[in-house]
Amino acid sequence: ELKWDTVLHPPYLPDIAPSAYHLFRPLKLFLKQKRFVKYEDFKMAVFDFFDSQSAAFWKKGIDDLPERWLIVVTNDGQYIVD
After folding, report:
1. How far is CA 41 from CA 24, 29, 38, 57, in A?
2. 50 φ, ψ (degrees, to nearest 5)
3. Distance between CA 1 and CA 7 in Å, rounded?
4. How far is 69 from 19, CA to CA, in rounded Å?
């Protein structure tokens, strides 16, 4: 229906999955210098991060996937440094 090609994902990559990369840097910045005593507090902070992101943030992550996958394929699955 969407006319997408499915690219197989190996069981292990030395780098994070390209689909997750867009998420981790902003999440790291969001959590920077926060301290958590309880796991539940940490969990709520992560949920707050997800809730605070705009639709444009999530759209960009999806739109960037083809380029990120091309980098992974071009590098033959080797570690990617941005």
Report:
1. 19, 17, 5, 24
2. -55, -45
3. 16
4. 8
* Tens digits of residue pLDDT in 14-28: 555 655 667 888 998
- pTM, two decimal places: 0.61
pLDDT at 9: 62
Beta carbons within 10 angstroms of residue 69's beta carbon: 16
Tokens of 75: 């590098």
Q: Cα–Cα distance between 80 and 36 in angstroms, integer? A: 31
The one-character DSSP state at 38 is: S
Q: Provide the 3-class DSSP secondary structure of residue 47.
A: helix
